[in-house]
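Notes continue from the previous slide.

Worked example: a multi-chain complex. Inputs as given:
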Amino acid sequence: MISIAARFHFKVVLALLLFLSLPGVAQPLSQVREIRKKKEIGWLKTFSEFLSIPNIASDSNNIRKNAAFIQEMMIRRQLTNVQLLESKEPGVPPVVYGEYLVPGASKTLIFYAHYDGQPVNPAQWATGLHPFVPALYSDAIFNKGQAITLPDSNGHTQPEWRIYGRGASDDKAGVAGLLYALEALQTARIRPSANIKFFFEGEEEAGSPHLEGILKQNRELLKADGWIICDGPVHQSGRKMIALGVRGDAHLEITVYGPVRPLHSGHYGNWVPNPAMTLSKLLAGMKDDRGRVSIRGFYDDVQPLTTAEKKALLAVPSADEQMKHELGFEEAETPGQSLMEAINQPSLNINGMASGNTGKLSANVIPTTAIANIDLRLVLGNDWQRQQQKVIDHIRSKGFMVIDYDPTATDRQSGKKLVKVTRGLDGYNAQRTDLSLPLVQKVKQAVQSTSKEPIVLLPTLGGSLPLYVFEKQLGAKTLIVPIANHDNNQHAENENIRLENFWNGIETYAAIMTIDW
Amino acid sequence: MISIAARFHFKVVLALLLFLSLPGVAQPLSQVREIRKKKEIGWLKTFSEFLSIPNIASDSNNIRKNAAFIQEMMIRRQLTNVQLLESKEPGVPPVVYGEYLVPGASKTLIFYAHYDGQPVNPAQWATGLHPFVPALYSDAIFNKGQAITLPDSNGHTQPEWRIYGRGASDDKAGVAGLLYALEALQTARIRPSANIKFFFEGEEEAGSPHLEGILKQNRELLKADGWIICDGPVHQSGRKMIALGVRGDAHLEITVYGPVRPLHSGHYGNWVPNPAMTLSKLLAGMKDDRGRVSIRGFYDDVQPLTTAEKKALLAVPSADEQMKHELGFEEAETPGQSLMEAINQPSLNINGMASGNTGKLSANVIPTTAIANIDLRLVLGNDWQRQQQKVIDHIRSKGFMVIDYDPTATDRQSGKKLVKVTRGLDGYNAQRTDLSLPLVQKVKQAVQSTSKEPIVLLPTLGGSLPLYVFEKQLGAKTLIVPIANHDNNQHAENENIRLENFWNGIETYAAIMTIDW
């Protein structure tokens, strides 16, 4: 043990050393880690409070509470110019903005994260879990993790602990992780090497329909040398990762119609057309037996990868066998295709399907409707509305009359097969940042400096973010630096963040904030 | 106006006349009707109380409350030997039995109805309706009927009024209608022409798994010249109806598997197989594009109709155009096929289908499972378990490994396409009573005596009842005499009974109770 006097002396020396440290000084890593260890319990308490505020983009009241909570966190960390960037339209979740300007810094980085989350169906969460009652577990539930309580403020966490709750990884971990990274630097008196701006969106999971407007209104404020997008999971191998781009995304909701009222399946079964069967046939016809989308022109427009991107792709370690084992399947949807090949193609995926009732609620009826929600992922070259149109044209080619409202009696009497197709208005295109930019190399070095293992440089994420809007409106260069564990159940029930990922992520962000330009 | 003395005198004469009336006396119809008009408000009050008791077969506690309520109704109507016929297995809904023996009667009729109802999903019911809060409406909701309150006991009902609630038509209307018919005869002092026994089942909608055992244990008690099955809707034309048989029924639940945990559809979309697509393809392959089941041997085993049955079938008025208009479709599932042709064939119908979430809850995921519930209707010649097996064999023929449990990690690593198929254990075969039996003619005459319009004699109902069990265990002759309106939403949300149908049904039952043998 060190005596009190010695400890005091040690602290003073440390503080002096920290005070003298220059921007971009090497090895802030160990300092950030030590500070994290001291603060982690307090940080987790605050993070839990943050996760307790429901964050569905359409829930205005709670969205505002989230925004206020973040503003409060910003102010406590001496951020300046803290404000809500509002859409011109009323009722839109605001962007929470704050900045930490560094005298003399010649660079400006904006860190993006989002505080809203995907819709939740609490009934689907594991027993004992609720999306907005964050819970600490000793390990992943699928690894037999048990609910535990947070140690008191002198205690410490274990790397495998996880926090369950909506937004735990996607993407309140981004918001909190960034602010904690800055706090760690502040505590260590390490000055960031660039002006730091935070831009926390509140409707990313709703498709960012007002992002473009907000960017446009704040062009001056949002000038930067680079945008660091803090969202998504790291590589399945656990290695840290940078992604240069994202797939685009577009949605469609398809509804087919049976009888106007639910019918007894005995009295009318197989005379009155069953919408669940109609929908099954319609969906089944969208892919061939090898998982290829059989919609005309679906793979047209795809802009091929550059030589450098292809090379980068080849360097990405394959997680295919690991993931097949982990996810419990043997054969890819398109047999023989690798995950990397798959995410570099446009996709068509059924998110959900519903007709009548199943299981215990199942009754002997012909349902009145059958509904499917579909998401289309897009790669460079695809236009999201054109991609939607291809699906609609396909449905028409199968003899359906496509409408965008519930059919009237007259429509039903027309003798035509009716399908309602609702286009999601929240789509956007893919985006990819040029691999050869100096920014890419600098960020890569910074992230690599925090990890012994080689980091993964991915030409594109499979997931989507509205990055093409940043490029279009601001000419911004975006780089995605995710931190979450790959098995975080992002978008689904039992969303979680593994604590080691959270802590490593804070180190990653601190490293980017102190890039040696 | 008649003076009080004159009215008294009139009543005495009437009572004397009624007292002297013989079994099977003609024209009880107008008396039953007059009594009904006096009692209808009170009857509806009791009926509402009855409907307020939830009646899902698996809900033991409430099922017992229903049984007790019926016993009380029986006792109030001087029934004797009132008892619960229990299964030897514990926890099974009992049959409620009671009898009204007529001195000197040489015939015995047993009236069957069931007091349990189909599962409910309250969320699907119309605004303001709840399955177990019966509500009186001025007309069908789809005809813009409004919620109204019951008149006081001197008031009267209107023919188009409807009562909404689970069991309102299927089949508490049968239970109450029978007891009210007897009460009307008792009040009018018209003696039934046969010993009357009531047999009210409590798990018909769960597939009557214990009915056979209960019949077997009570063979002596249940000896009868005929069973009148009081369930189902009258003909779509509104005409009264007798059906000689029913289709059989069998169920299957099909579950296909995606990843062990829900996945972000961007990061894994179209690499990890999507169970909703797999299920769609599987279901789509079960029927050809003309609605014919394409499962090998599905239409084998069918025993053709007799010449007399074919003739009866030809005499059934076609409701096809009316129903197409009413239900909002133009083309039968198998184009050109009539409803009567359809219900004389085995069928395959999807009752429900579910994967992930749809609508507002839809999220960008690959779901973990996709489930479909299927019911198979059977005609004479089909065996319910053999019919299930044909579907299972079909699934196997598509390259799936069929299991009857959730797959283990080892199953998933086998590289086989996995499907869980759960056979419903509640299936049973079709049944049809011989058209030439004297009983059929007597019941036909009795029902015809209550209606100006020619009644409909249907060789088989499209729906199912476990009537083959009665024949097998008791050698019973069964005849189905339904009373509900055809648009009663039986088995689904917004189930209802139209009051004119209820009142007409009571007259029908009273007529059968007073058949002139």
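Summary box: Chain B touches chain A through 106 residues (CB under 8 Å). The longest strand of chain B covers residues 245-257.
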